[in-house]
Structure formats: structure tokens, C-alpha cells
Amino acid sequence: MFKEPTNKSKVFIHITLIIGAIAMITPFIWMILTSGKTQAESTMIPPQIFPENFQWENYKNVWGALPFIKFYWNTGVMIAGRVLFSTLFSAMAAFAVAKLEFPGKNIFFMLVLTQMMIPAQIFITPQYLLVQNMGLLNTTTALIIPGIVSAFGTFLLRQFFLQLPDDMMEAAKVDGASIGEIFFKIYLPLARSGLVSLGIFTALFAYKDLMWPLIANISQDKMSLSAGITTLQGQFTTNYPELMAGSVISIAPMVILYIIFQKQFIEGIASTGGK
Amino acid sequence: MKKENWKKIFSAFLLSLSLFLVGCNNGEETSKQAEITYSIWDPVQLPGMQAVAKVFNEQQDDVHVNVEVTPWEQYWTKLESSAKGGKMPDIFWMHSNEIAKYSEGQVLMDLSEVIETSDEIDFSLFPEELVELYTDGDEQLGIPKDYSTIGLWYNKDLFDQAGIDYPDETWTWDTLLDAAIELTDQEKGIYGFLAPLNREEGYHNFIYQNGGEVLSDDKKQSGFRNPATVEAVQWYVDLSIKYGVSPTAGEFSDNSDMSYFQAGRAAMSLFGSWMTAEIASNENSNEFADVAVLPAGEERASIFNGLANSISADTPHPEAAIEFLEFLSSEEGMILQGKEGGAIPALKGADVSFTEAYPQFNTEVFIEQMDYREIKPYSKYTVRWEYEENDDLIPVFFGDVTVEEVSEQLADNVERILETE
Amino acid sequence: MSIQSRAKSKNISHGNREKRSMMFWGWMLIAPTLIGLLILNIIPVIQTLIMSFQNVSTFGESTWVFFDNYKRLFEDPKFWLSLKNTLLYGIIQVPITVALSTLAAVLLNQKIKGVEVYRVIYFLPMIAAPAAVAMVWRWMYSSDYGLINSFLKFLGFSGNIEWLYNPQVVIWSLIIVGIWSNVGYNMILLLSGLQEIPKSYYEAADLDGAGTVQQFFKITLPLLTPQLFFVLVTSIISAFQVFDLIFVMFEATNPALSKVQSLVYQFYNETFILDDKGYGAAIVIILVVLIMIVTVIQLIGQKKWVNYD
């Protein structure tokens, strides 16, 4: 299949891919177009595609109605906290599992595998009660807590460490380095691509997480973006231009990051799956 | 040692530490005062509560009350977690839907002794159903703050235009329906009546007027096994489905009943007494609206309910909180509350302060209806069976099935909850 | 003691020290994750299991009700509907998504221009917050003003489909959005699998005169099975957990909600809205058992079709 396709089949491939691409992107375009319409324009039959004058007013109204700056901040803190803790802790555990021999290792790795197979909803009520008992509901810390360690991350990084040769360890040991030093100075830097993949994966899913932020933080100024915009519907029930403006505001930062770092994003995600 | 004990020792330690620090502090003014928080959920009633707190704060120097509003959606989650963390507000509102849970959790102060010894509180002047609602065994866990009944609000302009007499105590279901048909003007988008899927300000009133019930007296059975209940709800649903004098459930998802009424697009609607402030705050509805007693069915009835003020069992300032509660429940406090027009004070005699706040409306009807009041149905897990009832009635209000067709299933679902109580 | 044996014992003690240091570092390095997993995951699993046998009281003591929650569940028509919706969603959404993402991955693996642009666009739905996604779809599904009905009308259909209210249709509305959201992610995973297939296989097939279609079924598909298997397993697990889209697209008063609500939605509602944590726990236990069964079946079944070479 790596031979050059014929021109005819090329046309066919492009047509198929373009139809798919249109289906993928139309909702986003429609979101942006609607966000610029007046309410009258948005409810025309048949629909009017482009707004007469782009209504920046809608953005102003939504921005004023919801504390978006706080949503951004809370989401940022949540992502930073989860990425930082879970990649570091996962890397440590993954290294131990991949490169060290010690009693209890296999049991630990079994725990990791079991956790990965169980759907997250089973943890969520006890986690909620835990955070409640700690008096941490309605705080940005609450957003981070469930993502502080990652079984998946441990599993993923283990694969990376397994691919690295053992003899570096032996050589460093002869030089008198402790295992801690060996991990931080030699192996961790070599696993950088794995860490980046895990970081992107963690960040993306933290940003998309809805149920936990929804239950843990009920005051608006402690909500994450994804939970925060669900409150839009209550406020602007049928004012779709403003609802769409809110949606644009909420997805814009991630989409911009994605477009800038698309290669890292896609490769990072690709390396988290399969095998 | 149990966790609780550690907590106590730790807080005792902190307390003595803070006392020590305060002692060193050459007696600044604030240090003598106990700061207490009064937590409420209704922003409409904030002025009334603030008025009471203000007078109380000015009358004495020992206690300072701060009023704090948390919207209903968050209020209970917040109260629950603060109760678990031992950081409840000192004094706060309690609701009939939630009291069972809090009384079981023993997080509320037993007020029976306070009531017995107080000179300020005369408990015989509070509606007995409400007193009972906030009682658990021999413990009194809240003092009624206000009560509410439901009124038939109408748009005088629309009645004048149609040349129909305003609703009054002679009205029956038939009068209501006839007038609603007459007043409906589909071209102008005007409806004669508003019949949304709403219990307290909707079909529950009609159930009791028809001699039906929502729950059996022993709270073991659903009233939907009673034909009178089914008949009343069907009659109510037919207002939108069969007669078209009310918007449909679909239309209500776009506009609330209040927005229909305030926009002048509805001639009549049921609203609770607590909505009076909302109707008065809109200059159109303030002008054209008035209120009458609910129409009579087989009998007269209006759903009635009321909030209570409760005190946290482990407030660090029990005396201060009790002092404020006494003031809230005194005649003076009740009148201060009523004058702002947020809610009808629970104390007999003080309730007229509410009606006096609204000379433009015939709000006396809310007090009048206390003669045939019907307490808002409740059991231990009210929220849960209300959800089942609501869920099963949704397709009915969309006209897909009749009440009779779902009543069996609805009753089963409600009783499955009641069984767990 | 001879010199030899002293050297030996030194060696042993050296080995012991190394072993001990290994053990020390091993435990140190896994400690945060181990403690975190225990507190946040392992103990909660046990707690949830216990709660499912209890009437959970918010403040006071929870009481044991043993199988009452489960009994109530099996009598609850809403539970059976949720179960049916969840299964239906998974069984329809996953195969279509996997088929479409395989198609997209194979096409993108060709030597054509603009591969990167396509890749970026196909992956875009994965980047957006589910609440925003659900909101725009809700708007496009609007029966009067929605883009989809207008488009259908433009194509000559009647275009009066009540995507969000018709009980017969709602599950399909959800499935469509589910497919749209997941195609890009699976495509990326499959594409990386395709890129690992050695070119020489195709060159050899060319020499044998095998056509494109033949090559797809003889080479591409068999060699892609490990990735396909992974994608299938994870897709089914996540499809059975569908919640976000339902939560945002269908409001609580929607009469068709019961025809689209999933087990996780019902769990959320019972646990956090109605505060019936024991009943909610029973629902989630059923969900876990369901997912386990399906996963185990797949693990057993994979031997028949997955090709690990």
C-alpha cells in the first residue's frame, strides 16, 4: 500500500476523507457562527449561515455572567497538579517495577493492573466522602486529589523503562551511585518522551473530566471549565448564541494549544494505546 | 481513643490557646463579641433577614450576626459537608424535605428546653403541623420561621378586557375552567391558566381539593392508588393537553410559568405566598396582578408548608445563637421579617405584617386559607419519592399517556422508596 | 576461618546489603503510588461494595440491609431501562466507531497530500470539553432551528425529526455524537499500528499481483488485530460508562430521558442528587460486573482472531 496510489483512487480517497473531515469540523464551525448571531438570526428557518454582523456582545454577556477567569484558573491548577504528581509518582513506581527486584513487587503490579480494569465510578462515592471528611469540598485541591496517582501512568511508563537497557544501571552502581540517583539522573531523563505522552494524556483527560468536578465543587468560583459551562444552560436556557459563545470560550484554550502542539498531542496519545 | 475525643481535646486546646491570646490582647472591642453566622438560601428574603439581624445587632453588644445566602442548589450540599466537618453555621434555615436526615444525624440542637424557659417564645402561637414537622420524639429541632400557602394569582387587565369577573371565594373548578377557556387567545399567545408539572404550586392542591391524597396517613402507601387523586391530576393535566388553556410541558421548558405570567401572557396561575415579592418586583405584574383563594373542588384545600430556624448541635456559641433565635421567634423579630414581605411570619398575630407590606394585593387570602390548610406531604425520604412521582408524570404532561395508565407504576415506585424508610 | 571463606561471607553480606538497598529503594519508589492507590482506589472499592449492602445514612450509622438494594434494583423499571440503554449504546456505537476509524486510518496511511491536516481535524472532537460538545450538538439537533433537520430537508427528507424528544430516536442521537467524539481517538491509535507494518510485506504482495482489497484483508487487517483488539476493549469499557453527553444533552425534565439514560447516569442521580448512596453503590457494582464479564469474554475470544507475531 506504500506504492503511490493511482490518481483515480487518490481522488476517491480525498473525497472520502473530506466528507469525514466536514462531519468532524461542522459542529465547531456551527458553534463559532452561532456565537456571532443575534437570537433572531439563530432562529431563522431555513437557517441563516453567517451572522449579518458578528455579535461580540454575546461573548461580553457570557463573560460577565460566569467567572471564566476562575474557571480557567481552577482548570489550570487541576491540570498542573494532576500532571505533576501523577507523572512523577508513576515514573518512580514504573522504574521500580521495571528495573528493580524486591519482594512485593508483583503484588503491587497486580494492584496496578486491577485498578486499570475497574471503571472509575466505583471509586467516586468513597472519594467524595473522603474529601468531604477532610473538609476539602469546594476547593481547587479537591479537583486534583483523584488524579494524584495513576495506575495507567505506572503501566505505561513501565513499558518505556523496560525498553531501556539494564547495563547502565550496573555501570552506575560500580561507580557507587545509589539507586535513587540512578533513577533521577540516568533513567528519568531517558524516559522523557514517555513522560510527555503521559503528561498530555493526563492533561487532556483532566480537562475533560466532568463528574468529579461536578460533585466535588458546587460553588461556581471553584468549578473547572467543563463543569462550569454546564451551569450556562440554566442561565441562558434558549439563548443559543450566548450558549455557543460560552462553549467557544471554554474550548478555545485547549484547541489553540492543540493546534500549536498538534504533533506532540497526536504522537503522545498514539503512544498511550496498543500493545 | 475515638476520633471524636481527639477532636474535642484538640478544639479545647485551640480554644484555651485563643482565649489566652485574646487575654493578652488588651481587650480589643471585637474580642468580647461572639460572631455568629445565620445561613439562608433565598435571596428574596435576604432583606427581611438582614432587617432582623440589624435590629438585633444594635440592641446588644455581645453577639454579632452575619447573614449568609447560599443558593438552594448548593445550600444542602454545603450544609451537609459542613455538618460532617463540624463547621456548620451557628444558626440556619431548615426545610421539610431535609429535616429527617438532619434529625437522624443528630447534628441539630434540641431546643425544647429553650422553648420552655424562654419568655420571648410562645409556642402555642405557631401552626401545630409545623411544630410537629420539626419534632423528633421529644426533641424540638427547629422553631417555625414562616409559613406559606398557595394563591390563585390573576391578571386584572386580561380579565377586564374579556369582561369576566375576578376570581373569588365562590369559584369552583368549573368556574376556573370556563374562565380559562374564555381568556385563552391563541392568536395573541395568551393562555387562560398555567398548569406546569409542579407539585406544591400545582396539582397537589387539586388532589386534596378532590378528596384525594399524595401519601397515606401512615406514609406507607402512595395516594395514586386512590381514584380521587388520579382524577384530580388528570383534570389538571387536561388543562394543557385537552383544553389547551395552558402551555404544554414542552413550552414550559422554554419559558417558566413566572415568565409567562409577568409577560402578561397568562390570565391565571398558582403561585406560593413566597412569590409575592417576585411579582411585586416586576413593574408590570405589580400593576396588573392580584390574588384570590384557590377554587373549590369537592372541598377546599391549599398546600401549606413552612421553614424553621435550627441551631447547630456543636456551635461554639450556643448562648449567642439561642439569644438570636429567641429574637427571631419573638413578636418583634417576626414583625420585622414580615414587613419586608419575603415570607409570612409563622407567629400568629405577626402574620398580618406580611399582608400589610403589600397593600396593592389581596394577600389576606394566604392567611385565610390557613383554615383549610393541608401540610405539604412529607416522609423521611421526601426528595426520593418526589423524584419518582415527577419522573413518572413527565410523559403524562407531554400527553403521551394518561394518569390512570401510569398510576399503578407510579405508586409502585413511590412505595418502593417508602418501604426503605 | 580461612581467607577464602571470609571473602565469601563478605560477598554474601555485600549481596545482602545490595538486596536490602534494592528493597529499600523499591519500596520508596512505589510508596506514593501504592499509598495513593490504596486510599483512592482499593479501599474505595471495598467501601462501595459494603455500601451496596447498606442503607447509607448521611450523618448517622448506616444500617445493613443486605440484598435489599439489589432486590429494589431488580424491581425498578428504570434500572432495566438504563441497563438496556447502556448495552444498546455500547453494542451499536462501538462497532460503527471502530469500523469508521479503521477506514480513516487506512486511508490516512496512504501516500497522499494533506495527511496532517486530516489528522488534526479528525482528532479535534477529542480535544473539546464534553459539555461544550454536547451543547453544540443539542443545538444542531433542535427540531425547528437545528442544522441537521434543515440539512435533511435540503436533501429532500421531511426533516421533522425530534432528535432530543422522540423516545424512539434519542438513543440514536446519543450514538451519533458518541461516534463523532471517538472516531478520531481510535483512528490515531490504529494509525500508529498501521505504520508499524513493514513495507516489505506489501512489496511482496505486489509482486504476487495481489490487489489493494486483497492486500487489506490478507496483510493489513491481520497485522492490525492487536491494535484493533485494544481499541475494541477500551471503547466498550468507555461506552458502558457514558454519562457526560447524556447529562448535558438531555435535561432532567426531558420526557424521553428514560430512553437514553445510562447506568452511570442513574448512578449519578441516585447517589448525588437523591442522596441514596447505598442504592447508587448497587448500580455501580452491577456496572463493574457487567464490564468485567464483557472484558473477560473478549480476552478469551481474542485467541481466535488476534494475531500477535
From TrEMBL, chain A:
Main location as per UniProt:
membrane
Query: Which keywords label this protein?
Result: Cell membrane, Membrane, Transmembrane, Transmembrane helix, Transport
Q: Which residues cross the membrane?
A: 12-33, 71-95, 107-129, 141-161, 182-207, 243-261
Q: Which domain of life is it from?
A: Bacteria
Q: Where is the ABC transmembrane type-1 domain?
A: 72-261
Q: Which InterPro entries match?
A: MetI-like, MetI-like_sf
The yes or no answer to whether the keyword Transmembrane is present is yes
Cell division as a keyword of this entry, yes or no, is: no
Q: Name one GO biological process term.
A: transmembrane transport
CDD domains the UniProt entry points to: TM_PBP2
Q: How does it sit in the membrane?
A: Multi-pass membrane protein
Pfam assignment, any one: BPD_transp_1
An example Gene Ontology cellular component term from the record? plasma membrane
Q: Cellular location of this protein?
A: Cell membrane
Read off the PANTHER family from this record: ABC TRANSPORTER PERMEASE PROTEIN MG189-RELATED (PTHR43744:SF12), ABC TRANSPORTER PERMEASE PROTEIN MG189-RELATED-RELATED (PTHR43744)
Record-stated family: Belongs to the binding-protein-dependent transport system permease family.
Protein name, per record: Carbohydrate ABC transporter membrane protein 2, CUT1 family (TC 3.A.1.1.-)
UniProt source species: Atopostipes suicloacalis DSM 15692
From TrEMBL, chain B:
Q: Source species, please?
A: Atopostipes suicloacalis DSM 15692
Q: Hey, what's the signal peptide range on this chain?
A: 1-23
UniProt entry keywords in alphabetical sequence: Signal, Transport
**Protein name in UniProt:** Carbohydrate ABC transporter substrate-binding protein, CUT1 family
The record ties this protein, via InterPro entries, to:
Bact_solute-bd_prot1 (IPR050490), SBP (IPR006059)
Q: Which CDD domains match?
A: PBP2_TMBP_like
**Top-level taxon:** Bacteria
The entry sums up its family as follows: Belongs to the bacterial solute-binding protein 1 family.
Q: Name one GO cellular component term.
A: cell envelope
Automatic annotation (TrEMBL), chain C:
Q: PROSITE patterns, per this entry?
A: ABC_TM1
Query: What are the GO cellular component annotations?
Result: plasma membrane
Annotated GO biological processes are: transmembrane transport
* Pfam families in UniProt: BPD_transp_1
The places in or outside the cell where this protein is found are: Cell membrane
Q: Which domain of life is it from?
A: Bacteria
State the UniProt keywords alphabetically.
Cell membrane, Membrane, Transmembrane, Transmembrane helix, Transport
Q: Family assignment?
A: Belongs to the binding-protein-dependent transport system permease family.
Q: What is this protein called?
A: Carbohydrate ABC transporter membrane protein 1, CUT1 family (TC 3.A.1.1.-)
Q: Which organism is it from?
A: Atopostipes suicloacalis DSM 15692
